[in-house]
Amino acid sequence: MKVMTQLAMVMNLDKCIGCHTCSVTCKQAWTNRSGVEYVWFNNVETRPGQGYPRRYQDQDTWRGGWELGRRGRLKPKSGGRLRKLLTIFANPVLPNIRDYYEPWTYDYSTLTTAPLGDDFPVAQPVSLLSGRPTSVEWSANWDDNLGGGPANAGLDPVIERLRSEAEEKVRFSFEQAYMFYLPRICEHCLNPSCVASCPSGAMYKRSEDGIVLVDQDRCRGWRMCVTGCPYKKVYFNHRTGKAEKCTFCYPRIEVGLPTVCSETCVGRLRYIGPVLYDADRVGEAASVADPTDLYEAQLDLLLDPSDPQVTDAARREGIPEDWLDAARRSPVYALTKVHRVALPLHPEFRTLPMVWYVPPLSPVTEALSSTGHDGEDVDNLFGAIDTLRIPVAYLAELFTAGDPVPVRRALQRLSAMRSYMRAVNLGDPPDESVAARAGMTGE
Ligand code: SF4
Ligand code: SF4
């Protein structure tokens, strides 16, 4: 067993209101420069929706279909020698500026100088890059306007996959429309394909805390990392010709401050903490045959920081006492491994992502609740959780490679916790059987 530390994050999706404060404060701190106008190290996506850059989740068909080969090298899923040569020399798998969105400056004078007319004003924004009017056809969060309805469903690669595989589980009518927000940063993966795909050795994972960074002096602008990251969380700076990415705010972390996105989050939904993991078993976990086993394999890598065997092994690796202490108190370890309510995003990408999500406990769609509080009727949820408005099948495609069991378990626990804590906070006698059924007893 080789014990290493990883700084990780959990985001509780029920609490995200899509205000974008995290994105804006991150941009002010890190990408408020020319060359990276289009870049959002932190972005907040509308779900269902296309994502940012759009259709990044569609690994099967995007630009022809790509997969990671041995030792993390990117290779075409099909095609002959020509495609392989193109992969090496031309790197044609990059998103283009329209997949991100064309950054523009709003001309406020339009508000006062535009002539009166019959038409609704539709002033075309001017591109920050070309200085000419944009041909805006799509931008991040435009999916909001479709509100999870049928038109939106047709654009989301996750739903498209569900349509073919389990159409009956997903509903597509406006009456049952649903939406939620998915904030995203770099996953600081345990098995980072960006690092594996960099020909210059510029991408690296810090051994002390697992943060993945780009060495700006070594980067030669190949952009293989942009292609190789399935989450599309490395970006190219067109001014400097170098790759850039989320740094987990390491200069702040090193002096004991949280990341900017966490500190400024209006919903207070981001939890940061270290976890200990077994580095010897990373390759084994990333290559389990069945994608639906990846979540458990990833979870299995996380080690119990209170186990004396683990802490002894950690000390032998030189992990300092204050890190071990922080690992014991880590909310990330508690939410992922102890309570099992936080799940990884797209574990089937096999990079072992270290940003975890508490899935949204959406309201039930019918008048099922005897408590009067949507999504908190434990009796009904244990029996009929598929009546939640957000289909469990959709959440499973996002977080567990399609396996509904861990998603159901997380939602049931959340619902039990809410119901239990509401009674506690109201001064009512809490129902201990609720806690027991959700496995909360003694935790
Ligand atoms: Fe690298 Fe992408 Fe993983 Fe971040 S999310 S560590 S950029 S592979
Ligand atoms: Fe969501 Fe927090 Fe970001 Fe607002 S600041 S969009 S609540 S993650």
UniProtKB/TrEMBL annotation:
Principal location class: other
Q: Where in the cell is it found?
A: Cell envelope
What are the protein's GO molecular function terms?
A: oxidoreductase activity
Q: Which cofactor does it need?
A: [3Fe-4S] cluster; [4Fe-4S] cluster
The membrane spanning regions, by residue number, are none
Has UniProt tagged this entry with the keyword Acyltransferase? no
Instruction: Pinpoint the 4Fe-4S ferredoxin-type domain residues.
Output: 7-35, 177-208, 210-239
State which Enzyme Commission number(s) the record gives: 1.7.99.4
Iron listed as a keyword = yes
Question: Main EC class of this protein?
Answer: oxidoreductase
Instruction: Report the leader peptide range.
Output: none
Swiss-Prot/TrEMBL keywords: 4Fe-4S, Electron transport, Iron, Iron-sulfur, Metal-binding, Oxidoreductase, Repeat, Transport
Protein's name in the database: Nitrate reductase subunit beta
Q: Which organism is it from?
A: Streptomyces meridianus
Counting on the full-length protein, the chain here runs from 1 to 443 of 556
